[in-house]
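Problem: given the chain below (101 residues), write out its structure.
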Amino acid sequence: MKRIIVDYKRLDHATAALLIDLYPHGYGDDDIIVLKKPGGELVEAVEVKTDDTIYLVKISKSLSNFISNFEETIEKELRNSPEKEILEKEIDENIDNDFES
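Solution.
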């Protein structure tokens, strides 16, 4: 199994969602893993496991904000996504076609 140290900003959506599922109210001292980089620098991280990878997500102030604001951020992304606009256009076209028939 691979072990990867990563910043939360580099996680794909599925892994980020898993992170939120694991720590919906944030993380505690018991969740923190402390790692020592080759240069002696200490890195604190929380663990997120997938089928083939263990992600060690670096802890930062922005990670805390990300967890606490995740739902709001996802809602904003969904409201502004091109996929939603395309889907809405397709729905509108289907409704128009239904009325024309």
